[in-house]
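re: ur question from yesterday

yeah so i grabbed the chain u mentioned. its 444 aa long if i counted rite. heres the sequnce exactly as i have it in my notes:
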Amino acid sequence: MFDRGHVRPNILLAYPVMLSMLGQVMTGVADSIMVGWIGATPLAASSFSNTFFSITLLFGIGISYAITPLVAHASGSGNRVEVSHVLRHGMLINLITAALLTGFLFLMMPWMYEMGQPSEVVELAIPYLVVVAPSIIPTMIFQTYRQFGEGLQHTRMAMVIVILSNLLNIILNYLLIYGKFGLPEMGLLGAGWATLISRCCMGLAMALYIFYGRSFKLYRHGFKTGNYALARIKSMLHIGVPAGAQFIFEAGAFGFSSIMMGWLGTVPLAAHQIALNLATISYMITSGMGAAATIRIGHFFGKGDVQNLRSSGFTMFWMAAALMLFWAIIFIAGQNLFPTIYISDPAVINVSAGLLVVGAFFQLSDGIQVVATGALRGLQDVKIPGLLIFVAYWILALPVGYWLTFHRGWGPQGIWMGLLIGLTLSALATIWRFNRLSSELNRR
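ran it thru and got these structure tokens back, copy pasting raw so excuse formatting
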């Protein structure tokens, strides 16, 4: 079901979110590129530590995603008071979540020595994670106000703030990694400080925009504290925790794939980091389309407009497929070129090129499943999609990837073939779920 009438409004809503998501992930891309210039071991250490950091942060981001569909639904039904309540309770939940997740990362650090990674990699990874871990707190503040603004279909300022934050991160990387203008040469640790500082600025800027923005005057009492309702907190966690679990299942699968790569050695782990970094660029762009799907579907759901809800959702799926087909072609064409941006080591470049070919094929499934999951979130359906994603990755993809790599001798590409299977099954399952739920609404 493709409706041309939804293409333009979908694009106008989605492109700022897409650029914002791209800008957010470009922080990690810039770190990987600039760290890769100082060697394969720091790059592998960055990959290993970011395995823990990214999975933990993504769970927090998933928690924050409860704000958008609830705000979109309340706004669509004209309930301004409820919009403010969602903001106030969302901030409380996200701050508590941020503190717990930061503490969790510090508790995990001693266990990093027990995961079979090269010792030189772990020695660099832990100090880097010590610096980066607290950046979860300003990131969750940013996410609270970003999801609130996006729920009201104000998406552009978050894009601007993320892009400016990313530019600041690159400048600080240059100064602190390489020790320019009299500053100490800190290597990988410098990248950690650059990330922490830029994310603090990002969170502060987004908070100021929402508080002082004219479009949000009616909701300013949402900044007040106190008078929290346990029932509302539970209803938000009912959406946020399963959404966070979805991120855990998917990101955790990619994280565990990094650990398996570490069992193969430093070169495969560094190559995996490069290929995954590039794949993340295309994923996060389409993830922005998934966030826009949440907003559009949530708005039509609040209005009770099921026909436009279905048309907008399926049009989004086709748009995602077209976009990811474009990325697949780019990955195949640039498989030998893109890794050279990160590193000059021929062995790492060769392994990365092979992984990018597999990555090109799972782009289609990756894009469709993230948009379908976003559309289901707009319907406030998060538990069953989370279960589907868990089965696709942890019951099928990772065991198959392990078998292909360590029992069939496929090497690093075996792990990525397993991930390809998981993404494809996840895409098919989430589309089926959206069609079923929206058809039921239509019959009612």
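noticed a couple things. The chain has a mean pLDDT of 82. also The two ends are 20 Å apart (CA to CA).
anyway ttyl
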